[in-house]
Amino acid sequence: GEVAVKLSVKSFDEYWSTAANQFDFLTTWLLLFTSVLPYLPIAEVEADLKHYANILRLLRLVRVIKQLKQFPRVQFMVYTITRIVDAAGEILSLLGVSLFFFCTLSVNLFGGMLYEGNPKLEETEYSEKHWYALNFNDMFMASAAWFAQLLCEYLPIYADAINRVSAWGTAWLIFPFFYLVSCAVIFELLLAFTVEVFMAVKEEGEFHANKEDVEMKRQASIASQEGGQGTLVGIEDQHHAPAEQHTGHAKEHAAEHSHGEAVEQHGGHAKSHGEEDSESDEERTKPHEHVKEMEKMFLKKGESLHHRIKVDSEFQEALEEAYEECCKEAGDEDSQGGVCRAAWQLENTLYSKVLHQFPEDIEAARELHYDALRATRLYNKAIVALVILTCIEVPAWCHSSGDVGMWTWQPGSDVCKVPSTDGVDGNPYLSGIWYLPPGYALVAEFIIEFLILRKFLLEKRLEDKYFKPIHTVYTNPVSIKFGCMCAIGSIIDTAIFAIFRDSIRFTFLFRTGLLCLLPGAQRLYVLIFNKKMLGEFASVGVFFVGTVMFFAWISVTTLVNLDEVSFTVEGKDPVRVNEGFDTLSGGIYTMFMAGITDGFIDIFMPSFAKYPLSGFLWISYLVIAQVLLLNLVIDTFVTAYLKGSENERESTAAVHAHDMRGAFLALAKHGVVSKDTFVAFVAELGKSPRMKPVHSDVAEALYDHLEEVNEKTFFDACCIIQHRVWVTPRDSYLSVYAPVLWDSSWFTYVRKQVWEPAELPAFDNLMNWVLLVNLVGIAIESVDNLSNYDVPSWLLQSNKIFTFVYVGEVVVKLSVKAWGEYWSSPGNQFDFFTTVLLLSTQLLQYLPIDEVQADLSHYANVLRLLRLVRVVKQLKQYPRVQFMASTISSMIDASGDILSLLGVVLFFFTTFSVNFFGGLLYEGSPHLEESEYAEKRWYVFNFNDTIMAFVTWFTNLLCEYVPEYADALERSAGPWGAVAWLIFPCYYIISVAILFEIVKAFTIELFLVLKEEADAAEESDSGSDSDSDSEDEGEKKDNREIY
Description:
mainly alpha, 48 helices, two-stranded antiparallel ribbon
């Protein structure tokens, strides 16, 4: 009737031009068609309708979905998904072509091979899981099989099954090939593409929202000035604005973006067209370039300058821009403060401390501040010791047995005992380490907690004595109180435990609280758990939960009455069609697991095996849940994290620039810092326990290199002295104590081979060839061992020769270079340690100790592999290896904050589970019989000590969600089982869905930055090479003309 009324008023073209009307028209005809089907006099149709009656009833819900469009979040998510699908047409086409090719190929080659009853499939995992429905017997089933492979990335069960039934021994290679082509390339491109589209949609939404806010403010301003009539006129003009106005806005938006791009191309310095500051237009010299010039100065004196300068290019550009703006806005101010204040102010800004007012007795306050920093260094070591103590102390649940000796060293199996079943002792699968006796552990814990408490007490004393009187906060009082509470609470818990020896302790709460006070965890906590970030996550999370509940309702409604047997697995109860969908709560949990794990095949197999057409429902759900929504979670975090980190970078740069200029004003007189003042300032800065001291010679050389430390060059100086810069003698002691040898012709030749050429000295090149020969020998020896051939004796003797050659390399270098010069290179440190390690393994076999000889026989192959460590160094000559190694190193170095927060969360869940679930999961437990956990023999994943619990949670982090763990804990936790298993969904939300996705977003951002820097460096190198080539050509041309 609705369709008829609209078509009686509107023409069909007018009616069909609206997407909503098209949706109404199609759903109406679909409902009408399903309503007419029961009246058709066809027996087959009537039989099928009985099976799919519930599905046909659910078609009425299709019209109801339209009502959801009134919610803004739903509109945004639907619009985003539509944009992704629309914009990803080419990638989806390529993916479809790839799937079509593999489907047709597999049907032609493997059709009719995978079927129930095939004797070749007996005792395979494919047969045990009853995956016969995933086969290549027709195009539809092959499509389902390859689609499941696409989502799971790689299924070795398929490869094993094909390998058994196919006559070709290499038939299984089709699956690795599919993984490389479809999963590792095309599907990953699709996932990366969703990030780009989501960021574009988000930027468009924010841009239009900002435009609307500006327009509303403008209208409100007009209303306040012109009265109510003006408001009506303004609103009317707004609604009747000509098309040119919108075009103008678009052009203005495009102009803003193009201007931003132009600014970025010019080094990130935003300048108006009217500025004519020639000094600011010059490209600022980078810290590494300054150091290179200083190296030449020290080289003339027979010394070498070394540095560990690591610069975040994006933050450096933002800091330069903020410092220049700060210098322009501020006037010529008089000098204030002194060396002590300037050093403290610069130190604060380097460690993200903002302090606008300093104590009157600043020198005494700084001395107490030094004491607090030294206590902080001990505090950091104490925290590490506390984590180690948590790993090696006797688990609390083990004390219930009463067999734990207070001062006796015992293996874990004698201390932590689980109940026996039918006279057979249970196996708790402990880590195998010998636990620290409780007496020693209590003493160590008291010492650690007092060191931690001392740090907070010193900070409180500094705060009360020097900063509270001037109404300034230097250290957050909440952090001090919380730290004292955790330290005192842990001491009290330790004392109570020493007296009563209870099986449950609450010290894990206090230890986790202390870890939460780590600076990296606090910084990232503020960046992640803010209103905007959590709001972005909630918008996608609610949509995901709604999708899970909606499809669970559909699935339960469809399958609840289909309790017939789908298939039977030997030794188990018959599997019914509605397995997991017999109740609504069970259906929600089942769909949740199917949406976030790779176990969806086993979940959907009972219904798919009996009713293959249900695959359309499951594929629809998997595409929405696993492909779109889970990737939108990553996209949300990537976008929010990039935006948040960009805002934090800009705000931090502004604060750093302000305090850096404040330090300059505290030192300068008449706009210049004298040399003596600058050297004293660098020395004062190096007194702080958390700063790297810079020698006065370096400070003087830096001042001489800069010629004058003014407002501009002070910035360059600060960028250098905040890092580790040191000077070492260049030549060894032989130059002083053996001058005749040093100046001899043959030793001069050796010195030249060690030093020259600077890029790759001849001696290092020789050792690289030695490493290559050693690698060939190791490869031959490995082949002989693996093939059970006798290794030639000369090859075994060559190992000793190579070891002493490496020792000779160290000796030769130390005879030419001073120890400080040698040790300043990470490559030399690597060589030294690996050489000592190899020499030690060679000498161990000559020790007259039977235990050592027995251990060497067990670990002989491992010790041989240690020789490969030196060979790894040979890879550094390849640019791609250098880039990947530097990228991984930079990621690890820069991801300290996110790894700290993730470590704190892992520590909490680990210690919590050991305290409350220790001793529950073990081999022989009657509660675990017939569980999938016991069938897979996953007893090693338990919470019986800290190390095993950490391994369990870490695997859960990588697998995202492991339902076998939750089921095992629910069975074993007794009356608390109905609640205990909820720890796994909580862990999934906090660690997997939030923190681990932030880790991925962080790696994406950092890799993009490093890749841009590498590409820019490569372009500059190629440009310089072309310039030098053109200069050479010019010289040749001039020479020809002269000739």
